[in-house]
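Internal tracking record. Fields below are filled automatically when a chain is submitted to the structure queue. Please do not edit lines marked as system-generated. If the sequence contains nonstandard residues, flag them in the REMARKS field before resubmitting.
Queue: standard
Priority: normal
Entity type: single polypeptide chain
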Amino acid sequence: MSEGQASAQSHASVGRPLLSLTLAALMDEVHAHSGAVYLLAPDQPVLEMAVMAGLPRAFAAPWERVGLSAPIPVSDAVRERRLVWVGGEEEMARHYPRIAMVLPYPFSLAALPVATAAKVYGAVFVTWPGSHPPELSDWERQHLTAACDRLAVRLERAAENSLPLAPEPDLLAAPVVGGAAGTLGTVEAARMVSRLPYGLCSLDLHGRVAFANAAASELLGVESQRLLGAQMWAAVPWLNDPVYEDRYRAALFSQHVTSFVALRPPDAWLSFRLYPSTTGLSVRISRARAVREMNRATPRPGTAPERLVTITQVLSLAGALTEAVGVQDVVQLVADEIAPAVGSQALVVLGSRAGRLRVLGHRGYADPLVVERFDGMPLSRATPGGQVLRSGVPAFFETREELERLYPALQTHPSGFSAWAYLPLIASGRPVGTCVLSYAAPHHFTTEERAVLTSLAGLIAQALERAMLYDVKHRLAHGLQEALLPHTLPSLPGIEAAARYLPATRGMEIGGDFYDLVPTQGTAAAAVIGDVQGHNVTAAGLMGQVRTAVRAYTAVGQAPDEVMRSTNRLLLDLGSELFASCLYLRLDPVRRRAVMSRAGHPPPLLRRPDGRVRVLDLAGGPLLGVDAAAVYPSTEVALEPGSLLVLYTDGLVESPGTDLEDALADLCRRLTDLGDLPPDDLADALVRHGPHTTDRLDDTAVLLLRSVPVV
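SYSTEM-GENERATED OUTPUT FOLLOWS
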């Protein structure tokens, strides 16, 4: 084939509805019943839905535009360059809870990247009814992958030849409205259906009525002419309830027969049975039996119209925002989930403190100074963010000229954007901030869009209020923790020391683990490590009391076993319901020995100068705060120069599903390999390679003591 012929063929092939035809062929090959093609937005980490097939696009409204970092299958497929398979309801709920909350139906889904070796162009997803096996077959996997690879090559050719893709229509079966003959095939069949004693309706994939027999019209109390071409829940006022729309969605997604019971005012209960196919629904309507039992469980019809898109968007975004913990989590989720969904290219979240604006976070600005110059600006200054925060009234600017006419001062620092939505974030009846959505081009905000954005601002406000409270508690907790632990370890003759503390990553990230190193007479020193039960402020407060008590008992010269007994009595006298484990020792580098006493604490490890490591299984007593008569025997251990003592709390070695002996053996191996490192480097290595380094269920404290020759 000549170069000219190849070019002509490329032009011809791209001129056809490339995405629609590819998607239709792919779904036909693997017998999927719905699907969509996403294309990567130019110069933005956003996937935009280009075409959908098999189901109304309204079903996927929350995911029309999604950020690449969003936790949904198509984004994962693009980021990780792999096929993502979700085999059913349980798997969807486990891996993608936001989608499962909006679409809680039995269906399977596969998502794949559309990419060549050099470039990603987008993604494809297809779905199957709940009857699909829980695993994707090798045959299906091969067909899906090959089709996406072919599409990527054709998109690559289109880009090389500068051929833009024209908008393509979604692929749905064309509705047949206005006559029974076209729907049922023959006039005689229509006559037969009209004689049946129960109602029959045919709905297309959008829920519009294409056929209704006389019995259906009579049972619904609506003339046939009003039914045809309209969605059933729009034509029948008492069916205008999101619950009934949900049953229609459930039938189409799962391709399973679905039913519900509804009350036709004032007291007639009707049963609806939905029989789905890939082209629409057949609905059988009859009078319901045993309605008294159903009365409590069936929701009463509402009066306010609820649209399907609004329901799914709110559910999806509300689910996303519940995952936000701190303020920066809220900012990131708004950037990943809400901004792409509404077509915004950048955002700022503003708050206030002491009468001044505070920039809580921003995304999408090439020059951060354009935003950060507002941080600390008096609220009284004429700025749109401050005005919206003070008044609680949203402001929409469709062009730059519109904004600068009201706020001329903004002309001196242009941001590069052309339209803005300033949304007040109101929680518990008071403004907590302003969310600013910025648009790259002039943007007309319709009345409906303004209402949706204002509603979404309410969800953001609730999440932001929770996050701000969490951040305050978090700072308070860490301040308390830092105040109770030693800032530095003393420099002592004959001892090299290092310590590390890592809080649990759940709860308030504060706990009861503690350590200390205290100089005593001459060259001797006392060391202690312990763990007060719990991960909260109470545990941290008790930890501070225990650490202070140990220091006091050390200062008066008590032996290790006496220190343990005195601390045990103190906890009992305090009346605390919390217990504590503890390991206390006296070091004497000159005499080369250490005397230790243990109270329910993990055993220390000793690394000898030759690299051998052993667990010091010392005799000990029960946890502190349990038994007033408890005895804590002491043990003396030889400490040659170069020996290393490793004291730690159980967060370093314990994790669910791991045997403690195996964990200790692994720690000993690491000490054998790394024990010659300087103490600070070794401490970093130990906590860095401990279990759950990113998701810690417990606090972790480590205290390393190396004996060196006394100079």
